[in-house]
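Hi R.,

As promised on Friday, here is the backbone we talked about, encoded as C-alpha cells. Could you run it through your design pipeline when you get a chance and send me back a sequence?
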C-alpha cells in the first residue's frame, strides 16, 4: 500500500479535488490511503474565528464562520452534512464568546472541523468520480497524548487501530481520512500542530508498513531555496532522510519536521510531489546519503527569530551555568534552536517569543541578557558539508558586507547555520544561492 497526502491547496476547490481524484485513480492498484488537509486556508480561518469570539466580537466571529461554511458549500453537494458540522461549530463559537476564554483544548475542537469536513467532501467527490472511496474519521485511528495543539501520537494504540480499522479495507477501498487531527485515549479531540497532516501521513505509513509515503503539495518538490524568499530555486531530485529532517526543522515548510522520523525508522521512502504537475518526478527522500558534486543540497530559512545573548562574569571557569540557563528555558517551555558559546557568553535563538519576558527575567537573576528581535536563521544543508574545508570562507565571501549575528557549525555534520537580521534575509539567501548553485550536478538537481 501507499500513503498519499494532499495539502490544503491541493484540495482547495471542487476543481482541485477533481485533479486529486485523477491522480489517485491512476494509482488505485497501489492500494492508497489518502490523507487530506483542510480545504485551502480553512485552519487559519477557524483559529481566527475562535480568537475573535473570545475577544468578545461574537457577531464578527459568526459572520466569518458563515463565510467559511459558504466556501465549503460552494465546493460540495453535501449540504446537510456541511450544515450539521457548522451548526456544531457555531455552538462552540457561541460558547467561546460567552466564556471569553480560549483553552488549547477548545482550539483543537474548533480547528478539527477543517479536516473532518475536507475528508468527507473529498470522499464524496471520489465516489462520484467512480473511485471506491471509504471515509475514516482520523480521530478513531490516531491516538495521541493530551498536549492540545501539539499532541504527540501514542504509537502502540495507533498502530493497532491502523491495522484493524484501515488495513482490512485497503484491498477493496481507497481509504480517505483527515490529517492533523487525532484524539486522546478518552476520545477528546486533539491536533498534532500546524502543518501536521504530513505527520499523520508518516504515522500511518509507518504503522501500515507502506511502500511509499507521498506528500502532494503545490511545488515540484524540495527546492534549493524557499520560493517565497528567493526565486530561481531548483528541484532537488533526491535527498537523504537526515538532510530532509534538517531542512524541515530549519524552516522548509514543504515538509513538517516530525514527518521524517517515522518514515526513517521503518525505512519507507518519502516522495514530495506537485498535485498541479503530477508528471514531475518530485523529490525522493531515502535512507542512504545522496552524493552530489554540489556540497549543499538546499538552503532553509526561518523568520521571526529572537536572539538572546547571555553573559555572565561569574560563569568564567564555573560549572553548572549552562544547566541553570537551560533550566530557565525548560521551565518556560521555550525550545532553543541554535546555540553557540564562548568562555563568558552564550548566544542562542528561540522561535517562540511567547514567554520571552519571563525567560529574560529569570536569566537576569544570574546573568546579563541582550535581546535581538526580527532576526532570521539561514541554514545550509548537505551531507557534503561533512569534512569539507572552506565552506565557511565561501559563505562569508558570498555574504559580502551582510552582518552575521551568530554562527553555528559542527553540532550536526550536515548543516551550517547562521543568523542575520530579517531585513538582510532575502539578499543573504540570494547571494548564497548564487554561490552554491551556480553549477548544478544534473544527477541530483533539476535546472
Ligand atoms: P501543503 O498545504 O501542501 O502542506 P505547505 O504550504 O505546508 O503545503 O508547504 C508547501 C510550501 O512550502 C511551498 O508552497 C513553499 O512556499 C514552501 N517552502 C518553503 N521552503 C521550501 C523549499 N525549500 N522547497 C519547496 N517549498 C518550500
Ligand atoms: N490544516 C492544518 C494546518 O493548516 C494541517 C495541515 O495542513 O497540514 O496547519
Ligand atoms: Mg504543509
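Update: got your reply. Pasting your designed sequence below so it's all in one thread:
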Amino acid at each position: 500500500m501507499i500513503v498519499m497526502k494532499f495539502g490544503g491547496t491541493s484540495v482547495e476547490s471542487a476543481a482541485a479535488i477533481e485533479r486529486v481524484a485523477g491522480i489517485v485513480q491512476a494509482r488505485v492498484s497501489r492500494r492508497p490511503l489518502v490523507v487530506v488537509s483542510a480545504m485551502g486556508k480553512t485552519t487559519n480561518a477557524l483559529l481566527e474565528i475562535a480568537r475573535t469570539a473570545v475577544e468578545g466580537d461574537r457577531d464578527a466571529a459568526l459572520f466569518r464562520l458563515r463565510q467559511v461554511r459558504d466556501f465549503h458549500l460552494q465546493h460540495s453537494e453535501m449540504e446537510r452534512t456541511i450544515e450539521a458540522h457548522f451548526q456544531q461549530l457555531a455552538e462552540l463559537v457561541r460558547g467561546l464568546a460567552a466564556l471569553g476564554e480560549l483553552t488549547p483544548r477548545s482550539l483543537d475542537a474548533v480547528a478539527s472541523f477543517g479536516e473532518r469536513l475536507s475528508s468527507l467532501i473529498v470522499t464524496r467527490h471520489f465516489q462520484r468520480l467512480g473511485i471506491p472511496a471509504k471515509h475514516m474519521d482520523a480521530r478513531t485511528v490516531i491516538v495521541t497524548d493530551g498536549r492540545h495543539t501539539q499532541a504527540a501520537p501514542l504509537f502502540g494504540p495507533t498502530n493497532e487501530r491502523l491495522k484493524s480499522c484501515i488495513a482490512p479495507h485497503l484491498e477493496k477501498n481507497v481509504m480517505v481520512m483527515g490529517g492533523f487531527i487525532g484524539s486522546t485515549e478518552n476520545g477528546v479531540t486533539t491536533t498534532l500542530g500546524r502543518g501536521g497532516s504530513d505527520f499523520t501521513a508518516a504515522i500511518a505509513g509507518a504503522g501500515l508498513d507502506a511502500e511509499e509515503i507521498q506528500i502532494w503539495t503545490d511545488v515540484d518538490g524540495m527546492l534549493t531555496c524557499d520560493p517565497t524568499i528567493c526565486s530561481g530555486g531548483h528541484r532537488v531530485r533526491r535527498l537523504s532522510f537526515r538532510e530532509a529532517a534538517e531542512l524541515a526543522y530549519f524552516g522548509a515548510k514543504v515538509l513538517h519536521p516530525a514527518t521524517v522520523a517515522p518514515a526513517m525508522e521503518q525505512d519507507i521512502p518519502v516522495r514530495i510531489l506537485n498535485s498541479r504537475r503530477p508528471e514531475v518526478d518530485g523529490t525522493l527522500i531515502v535512507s542512504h546519503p545522496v552524493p552530489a558534486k554540489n556540497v549543499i543540497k538546499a538552503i532553509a530559512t526561518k523568520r521571526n527569530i529572537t536572539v538572546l545573548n547571555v553573559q555572565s562574569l561569574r560563569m568564567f571557569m564555573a560549572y553548572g551555568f549552562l544547566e541553570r540557563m537551560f533550566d530557565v528555558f525548560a521551565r518556560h517551555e521555550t525550545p532553543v534552536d541554535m546555540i553557540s558559546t564562548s568562555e563568558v557568553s552564550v548566544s542562542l535563538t528561540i522561535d517562540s517569543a511567547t514567554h520571552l519576558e519571563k525567560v529574560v527575567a529569570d536569566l537576569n537573576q544570574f546573568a546579563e541578557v541582550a535581546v535581538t528581535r526580527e532576526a532570521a536563521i539561514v541554514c545550509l544543508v548537505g551531507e557534503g558539508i561533512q569534512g569539507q574545508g572552506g565552506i565557511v570562507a565561501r559563505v562569508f565571501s558570498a555574504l559580502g558586507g551582510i552582518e552575521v549575528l551568530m554562527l553555528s557549525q559542527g553540532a550536526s555534520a550536515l548543516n551550517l547555520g547562521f543568523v542575520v537580521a530579517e531585513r538582510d534575509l532575502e539578499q543573504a539567501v540570494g547571494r548564497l544561492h548564487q554561490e552554491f548553485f551556480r553549477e548544478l550536478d544534473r544527477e541530483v538537481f533539476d535546472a
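One thing I noticed while checking it: The chain has two domains: 2-218, 298-446.

Thanks again,
M.
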